[in-house]
Design goal:
Layout (H helix, E strand, L loop, with lengths): L2 E2 L1 H6 L8 E9 L3 E5 L2 E11 L5 E7 L11 E6 L1 E3 L3 E3 L1 E8 L2 E8 L4 E4 L69 H33 L7 H17 L2 H4 L6 H9 L26
Parallel strand pairs: 1-2, 5-10
Antiparallel strand pairs: 2-4, 2-6, 3-4, 4-5, 6-11, 7-8, 9-10
Length: 288
C-alpha cells in the first residue's frame, strides 16, 4: 500500500484515487447534516497535518461522525481496492465555494480511518505500540456508530471468575508472549519501542533489497523516495497486522545473537598433501 504525502496531494489531478494518507487530525469540525428529497446527508470537515507541518482539509461524506476526542490523534486514512472498481473511498477533489477553489481530500464510507496505535488489531502503525496494563483488553479507537444507535454491551467475566474456555473440546491457542510480563509500565513502553525500531530496521533492509532487484531488472529506471517509503511502510504494516512485532524477543537482537553463537566454528581448510617424487620407471616394463 502506497502512502501519499500531503504535498503530493496538491500536485495531483482532481478526482485522483489514493491508496492511503497518514497524518494527525489537528482539527475536527462539527458535522453538517440535512435531508434532500427524503434522503439524509451529512458532511464533516477535518484537517490532516503531517510531521513537517503540511496540512490539507478533508471532508467526510455520509460517514459516521468523529468526535472532538479525535483531535491530535495520528491516523491512517485508507481506501478500499477491488478488481472491478480499483481504489475507492479516498481521492483528491477541488472544492469550489464562492468562486474559490480549494484542494481537499474526499472520504466516502468505503474508506477506513484507523488510529496509528492499532498496529496489532488492524496492522497499520507508525512504530509505537499502545501501552496495555495487565488485565486490560486492547483498546482500539474507531469511528462511533451512527447517531441513534447504541452498541450492544459486551459481557466480561468477573475478576474472581476464571476466563471461559472454548467449547467442543478445543483449547484456544496460547496468546503471543511479548516478553514484558512483570515489567513496569515505563519498561513496557521502552520494550515496545525497541521492538518497533528493530522491525523498522528489518523493513528498511528488505526495501533496499527490493530496490536493488528492481534496478537490476529495469536498467535506466529509478524508484523515487516516495516509492521506497511506501515499500518499507507496507512491510511494517504487514508485520503489525500479523502481530509479529509483539512476537519479537527482547532484546530484539537476542535471537540473532544466539544463533550466531550457536553457529559451528569454521573448519580450517585442508592443506594440500606434499607432492611425492615419482621413481624412475623403465617404460619398457610398464604393464598395459
Amino acid at each position: 500500500m502506497q502512502v501519499a504525502s500531503i504535498p503530493s496531494c496538491f500536485q495531483m489531478a482532481p478526482d485522483m484515487p489514493l491508496q492511503a494518507v497518514h497524518g494527525k487530525l489537528t482539527k475536527v469540525y462539527k458535522p453538517r447534516t440535512g435531508e434532500t428529497r427524503g434522503k439524509p446527508w451529512s458532511f464533516q470537515d477535518i484537517v490532516v497535518t503531517d510531521k513537517e507541518g503540511n496540512e490539507i482539509k478533508a471532508t467526510l461524506n455520509n460517514r459516521d461522525h468523529l468526535g472532538q476526542d479525535w483531535e491530535n490523534v495520528e491516523v491512517f486514512i485508507m481506501g478500499t481496492h477491488s478488481e472491478k472498481n480499483g481504489w475507492t473511498g479516498l481521492k483528491t477533489k477541488d472544492d469550489e465555494y464562492n468562486g474559490n477553489v480549494t484542494r481537499i481530500l474526499w472520504i466516502t464510507p468505503s474508506a477506513t480511518i484507523d488510529t496509528a496505535m492499532q498496529s496489532d488489531a488492524q496492522g497499520y502503525s507508525t512504530g509505537e505500540e499502545p501501552q496495555q496494563h495487565p488485565g486490560e483488553q486492547p483498546v482500539h479507537r474507531t469511528a462511533p456508530p451512527p447517531q441513534g444507535t447504541r452498541p450492544a454491551p459486551q459481557s466480561r467475566p468477573e475478576p474472581s471468575q476464571p476466563e471461559p474456555r472454548p467449547s467442543h473440546g478445543r483449547q484456544a491457542p496460547p496468546a503471543a508472549q511479548s516478553g514484558d510480563q512483570g515489567a513496569t509500565p515505563r519498561k513496557k513502553i521502552w520494550m515496545a519501542l525497541e521492538k518497533c525500531g528493530y522491525a523498522h530496521e528489518l523493513c528498511l533492509a528488505q526495501a533496499v533489497k527490493v530496490a536493488n532487484n528492481f534496478h537490476a531488472a529495469n536498467p535506466g529506471m529509478e524508484l523515487t523516495a516516495e516509492h521506497f517509503q511506501g515499500i518499507a511502510t507496507s512491510m511494517f504494516i504487514e508485520l503489525g497486522r500479523g502481530g509479529h512485532i509483539r512476537e519479537l524477543p527482547y532484546p530484539p537482537r537476542k535471537e540473532s545473537q544466539a544463533q550466531q553463537q550457536q553457529a559451528p566454528a569454521p573448519q580450517p581448510e585442508p592443506q594440500p598433501e606434499p607432492e611425492t617424487q615419482d621413481e624412475d620407471v623403465d617404460e619398457d616394463n610398464v604393464p598395459f
